[in-house]
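Note to self: keep these together.
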Amino acid sequence: MSISAGEQPLRGAPPVALTANGKVLSTMPNRLGYLSPTDPSIGVEAIRRLFGTQGYVWLKGLLPRGEVIEFRGWVLSHLADSGLLKPATNPSLGIASDSAIDHQLANRRLMSVVRSTAYEGFCAQPRLSRLMDAFTGGLSYLHKRKIMRFTLPGTATATPAHYDLVYLRGGTSRVVTAWIPIGDASIDMGGLIYLEGSHAIGTTLEAQFARDNADLGPEERISAYNRNMTEGGWVSKDLPHMAEQFDTRWLMADFEAGDIVLHSPYMIHASTTNQSKNGLIRLSTDIRYQNVDDEIDARWGNHWSLDDML
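Structure:
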C-alpha cells in the first residue's frame, strides 16, 4: 500500500485537519481514505460477505431519515435543561450552547435516556431487528448495555483506537456492533474512523492477549483493564503512528441520518474531535447484537453507566 514520496495528498481531503488526542492525521492517500458505502438492498448474504472482507459494512439509509432526526430532537430536548443547546433553537438541529454547560446534569439526563422505553424501541425497531436476525443466522439478541454519546464542538474529546472484543471477552466472539449516527455526522463532526483491514490485526492482537492472559484468574482474564492491557483497553491513542505501523489507512465518511455501520469485534476504530463549523453536537449510539443461542457476556446484562468499567 506504499506510495512514492512525491505523491500528493488525498484528493477530496477532509474540510478540516482530523485531530485525535493531540495528533493530526496524515492526508496522504496511503494513510487516509474513505469508507465504501453499501446499499442495504443487496441482501443479507452479500452484506455478510462484505463484512467478512472489509470488517465493516456501512449501510446507507437503512433507517428512515425523518424518524432518526425526530429521535435526535427527542434525545437532545431531554438534555436541554443542562444548558447543552443554544437557546431558542430546534433541538433536532443540535446547535451547541455558547454558554456554560452543567455536564453533571447532562450526564444524569443521558443515563435516564439510555434506560428509557423510547431508546429501547429505537434500537430494536423492526427494520433493524429483522436485519440482525438474518445477519446473525437466527434470533438476534440485543445487549442491554447500550451506549449513547454526545460530543460537543470545540472540545478535545476523541475515542482512542480499540476493538470491541476487548470489552466483551466473557461471551461469544461472534458479536456484531452497530454504530448509528443519530442525525447527520459529517467528517468535521468527528464520527467514527476505521483502520483499513484491521479486523485481521485485531484478531492477531487478541490471540496474543489470550496467550498473555492465560495464567490470570477467570475474572481478570476477560477484563479490558487487566495487568497485560494498556490504559482503558485501548490499542493506541496515536492514530497517525498506527497507520504507519501497520502500513494502512484510516477510513472516514460523511454519515447521514438513517445510516448505520456494522463492524467486526476485531475491527480497530476510533473517533476524531468535533470541529463542526456550524457548532453542531454529534450524537450517536453503539449497540451490540449476537445470535441469542451463543454465549452471552453477563457483564453486558446491565444498563450502561459512565463508571461501569467496561
